[in-house]
Write a structure and sequence with these properties.
With 278 residues, this protein is of the alpha/beta class. It has helices at 13-28, 43-51, 78-84, 97-111, 125-131, 166-176, 191-204, 219-230, 265-277, and strands at residues 2-5, 33-36, 55-57, 68-71, 90-93, 115-119, 139-141, 155-160, 182-185, 209-213, 234-238, 254-259.
Length: 278
């Protein structure tokens, strides 16, 4: 059985930057270090950080003994910065630069009188953060939403969650264009996401089975699985090598592996090694 790992799999630039900031902080500070939400959507990495004393804080208003607060790569809205201001908490902002750009575009569009449309998953922390900059009339288009369910204004600006599918962004633009008198578009899908989706789709065309590695709560990892299935290939989403089932590969001559933006390289390599043993 031939095993091929997709190019561009594993940590993206923004996630690497946030992870490095968390481990560096854990090395310097011996107590009182928290991340606002899990640093990434990967339980194994979160567990390693917890072992070093970096705990997860669910709410910035919490009164735990917070000395240092790490903002994860997904970013946060302005209300979070206001909440910690003046409380003696040192903030380490590890927001991905691509996310910062999306936040900035949302703020500019709102200030200039545009209704902001965010293409993404409403429940995702990145989108929740961007909404804080997008104004009261902002709307979120998910992959299953259509323009007829929203009240679209004449002056509209469209941005995207950085890990969103380009096809979904394109569809939303096509639906909104006939309804808007003025339309501004910022393609805020990050370069790493575009490359990962392209390479994954290309690999899925040439293998019998795809294994998609990443956290079960990782939206961009689930999107990779959907992309593979759209190519007509069986695709299995796992977090660790222990989840692999031999029967998935009974008739497979070639197996492709891809990983989400928050999947460590060492987990991808473990999956590949386990497949070789199978």
């Amino acid at each position: 059985m031939k095993i091929i790992i997709s190019e561009g799999s594993g940590f993206c630039f923004g996630v690497k930057r946030a992870i490095q900031a968390a481990f560096d902080t854990a090395d310097r500070e011996k107590s009182g270090v928290f991340t606002l939400g899990p640093i990434i959507h990967n339980p194994q990495v979160v567990s390693r950080l917890e072992g070093l004393g970096v705990r997860v804080l669910d709410n910035a208003d919490a009164t735990d003994d917070v000395r240092v607060l790490i903002i994860r790569s997904h970013g946060v809205g302005p209300d979070v910065y206001e909440s910690v201001s003046g409380r003696g908490i040192r903030v380490i902002d590890a927001t991905c630069p691509f996310v910062k750009t999306a936040q900035s575009h949302a703020e500019t569009l709102s200030r200039e009188g545009y209704q902001v449309i965010i293409v993404g998953d409403r429940a995702h922390p990145e989108v929740q953060g961007i909404l804080g900059y997008a104004g009261q009339d902002a709307v979120v288009f998910g992959k299953d939403d259509h323009a007829d369910r929203f009240s679209i204004k004449r002056k509209v600006g469209i941005i995207s969650q950085t890990t969103q599918s380009f096809n979904t962004l394109q569809r939303v633009i096509e639906e909104v264009l006939p309804l808007a008198g003025e339309l501004r578009i910022f393609n805020t899908i990050c370069n790493a996401t575009r490359k990962r989706q392209y390479e994954t789709g290309k690999l899925a065309e040439s293998v019998d089975v795809m294994v998609v590695v990443g956290g079960k709560n990782s939206a961009n990892t689930r999107r990779l699985q959907n992309l593979c299935e759209a190519q007509g290939v069986s695709a299995y989403h796992i977090e660790t090598a222990q989840e692999l089932q031999p029967e998935w590969f009974n008739d497979a001559q070639t197996v492709g592996i891809t990983g989400g933006a928050s999947t460590p390289d060492w987990i991808i390599q473990e999956v590949a090694e386990h497949l070789r043993e199978l």
